[in-house]
Specification:
Length: about 375
């Protein structure tokens, strides 16, 4: 498996689960860090490394989503001699093209992963990378329903499976102690954890505050370009004292932050070049029994199902109405907290995602290599 995303330690549990599957000998190639487009650097976290081999390898053009690749990958493949190459990258990236060519040289079965849920055309050479990967990949794994449809529209004719990229460790993402009964007029926190970016619709959380009781607070945990605009908006709406900002935290600290929030909000906004692809923070919050509210953008309603509340994207009044529902109905609040946890247990555990991925591997081995 080739994945820059697996520098995040909590995601590595999936590999431990995969390594437990019968007959699997798993090797991960991953970089020392990934440079995010918001300027932050995600360093490799070695949290779950039992049962498989982790090779930390240099990455060229680190931080360039489309052009990065692994210069030592040919050497790694010649030593490992894989039967299956799982390329955890979009098909239009050079890293996928590079890994796919090496997989073909090894006569290995190959697959790629995609989140891309909007139909987009790419200029040369990225369209050529895409065509090559469509031709040679036996399988594609799509992280959401729309991404699977986009693959078909773009000409991919191979087998496609809809499986989230990673599951969630419900031992880690769990409430450490029962939530205490909230007293009337006690602070009620609406939280967001992640990059503070425009398309996340975070201004809606601030705009909802004047419509809510004074004890409601907004907590932003993360870094990003929207911090100053959000501060300015809060000042304009005279709610600055009710909005707080905290720096980003390592992935292993996220569960403790999630359980401190009264409700987690993901108010994403669809843009011409972006639509919410999954929203992994939602199952993280749900697994911690923190009720969730999400916008209608992209995959959010499918991820939440009946275990949270959905509002029309861009509508701060409707968001405020959802929050009031939770404030006014403690029974609903408690029910959604339990339903969220149960939905993750049934659909999004690391073990379940690993088993689904393993079944894809088994199917691949029944087909002659290309």
């Amino acid at each position: 498996m080739i994945s820059k995303a697996l520098v995040a330690g909590t995601s590595q549990r999936k590999l431990e689960e995969l390594a437990k599957c019968p007959g699997v000998e798993l090797t991960l190639a991953t970089p020392e860090y990934w440079q995010s487009d918001d300027g932050s650097k995600q360093m490799l976290e070695r949290l779950y490394t039992d049962g498989y081999q982790m090779i930390v390898t240099p990455i060229a053009f680190n931080g360039n989503f489309h052009l990065h690749y692994y210069p030592q990958l040919a050497k790694i493949m010649s030593e490992v001699r894989p039967e299956i190459v799982h390329i955890d990258e979009e098909p239009y990236n050079f890293a996928t093209f590079h890994a796919m060519r090496l997989a073909m040289q090894q006569h290995a079965h190959a697959l790629f992963f995609t989140w891309q849920n909007l139909y987009r055309t790419y200029p040369p050479p990225f369209r050529q990378f895409e065509i090559y990967n469509y031709k040679h990949a036996e399988v594609a794994i799509a992280g959401n329903r729309e991404a699977a449809e986009v693959l078909k529209r773009k000409g991919y004719t191979g087998s496609t499976h809809v499986i989230p990229q990673f599951g969630f460790d419900t031992d880690i993402y769990a409430r450490s102690a029962p939530r205490k009964l909230r007293k009337p007029d006690a602070p009620f926190s609406l939280g967001f954890i992640g990059r503070l970016k425009e398309e996340k619709g975070l201004h809606l959380m601030v705009e909802a505050l004047p419509l809510l009781p004074n004890y409601c607070r907004v907590v932003f945990i993360g870094n990003g370009p929207m911090k100053i605009p959000l501060e300015e908006l809060a000042k304009k709406l005279d709610v600055s004292e009710r909005v707080s900002f905290r720096p980003s935290v390592p992935t292993y600290d996220v569960p403790r932050e999630m359980e401190q929030l009264d409700v987690f909000v993901l108010p994403s906004l669809t843009r011409p070049n972006w639509m919410e692809q999954f929203g992994r923070v939602l199952p993280e919050a749900m697994s911690c029994e923190t009720p969730v509210i999400g916008s209608s953008s992209g995959e959010i309603p499918y991820v939440i199902g009946d275990a949270g509340l959905i509002f029309k994207e861009g509508d701060a009044r409707e968001l405020a109405a959802c929050i009031r529902k939770l404030l006014d109905d403690p029974t609903l609040y408690a029910s959604l907290a339990k339903q969220g946890r149960q939905r993750v247990l049934e659909n999004y555990t690391q073990g379940k995602i690993a088993r689904q991925t393993f079944e894809v591997y088994r199917q691949m081995l029944t087909v002659p290599t290309k």
